[in-house]
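Interim report, section 4.2 (structural modelling).
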Amino acid sequence: MLDKFPRTAVDVFIEVLQADGGTRCAALTAASVALADAGIPMRDMVAAIAAGKVADTVILDVNNEEDQAGQADMPMGYMPNIGKITLLQLDGVLTPEEYKKCIEVGIDGCKKVYELQKQALNDKYFGNRD
Amino acid sequence: MANIIDELKKNQILELLDQGKRIDGRNLDQTRELSIEINAIPKANGSARVRLGDTEVICGVKIQPDRPFPDMGDKGIFICTAELLPLSDPSVETGPPGPDVIELARVVDRGIRESHMVDLSQLVIEKDKSVVGVFADNVAVDYDGNLFDACSYAATAALLSSKTPKWNWTDDAPVLAEGEESDVPITTIPVSVTMGKIGNHIIVDPNADEWASMDARITITSDSDGNICALQKGGVDGFTQEEIFKCGEISVRIGAQIREKLKEAQKGA
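Predicted structure of the assembly:
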């Protein structure tokens, strides 16, 4: 919500320490949590995960080997409260049915990631501090 | 490519869409008139000139021996590029391409590459040493929105009409075999369909005014089997799950129509 702080730039720095597939999705997920942690007003968080197809099976969270050997990779970013897909890309061949399945699996995955994001923020601000 | 559209026009586009109409009178899922001219540049290995409404793109295909990528010694090389001539639009200047033009080239390349249109395994001269490189270079000469699809159709049409020379591996070097030309090995015909989202409306093949008003866009490429082989979303707004499903259906349906036009153009050459 950039209108809340005019004439201000927010820089997000992301460093990938180890790459095993899904770096973009992990980075997006981390950036969202970091922005929330910084107290930046936002319309929603973005949770991200990749769906894909390996050995004719639709899978969630494609790792490096699966990406290299797989048939399709579909990274997705999703705003769970607004219900909007903000990042979507696909490399690889999917039938129309598999395409729908991948979207559904991806959105479900993003919702799970979102729960973990919320958990992380909850733990920091409302967790047991002993 | 960045167009400054006045707020009045943007409001007009949105008001019309709310009534189910578009600023140029098309239906929401209707593309503009598409004309495909094969062999527009006869000296190239293959070429095409595509007009999508007033958007015009020329694609030339260059085919030459090249070193394979280190991890793909048994595959030829395919690279697709795109650039805008300064004469295509007042906002385009000479010099290195901006991020939007780089994205254009990548989206067009991805759509064709991921469909495996060109059978790269048939483009090996000598394994690990020399392969055939196929380069499809798009140049936009006139800009009225949706260069993604115009470039994609131009590159696909040019590839369909391309003839590849033959090289033999002699004395550790590729040697041209005179007079031996063949079609580029093609496995499928990919067709990209780009859709824009303005407000809650999904429109196919946005023109320049619509392109400048879009909240988000999505480019989906389907192959001859009606499968989806590449997708790229852009812009700041998001799509709901239903919208993404709908865009998938539209792209396969419209893609099949465009594919027939590409086939016709190839036959007519």
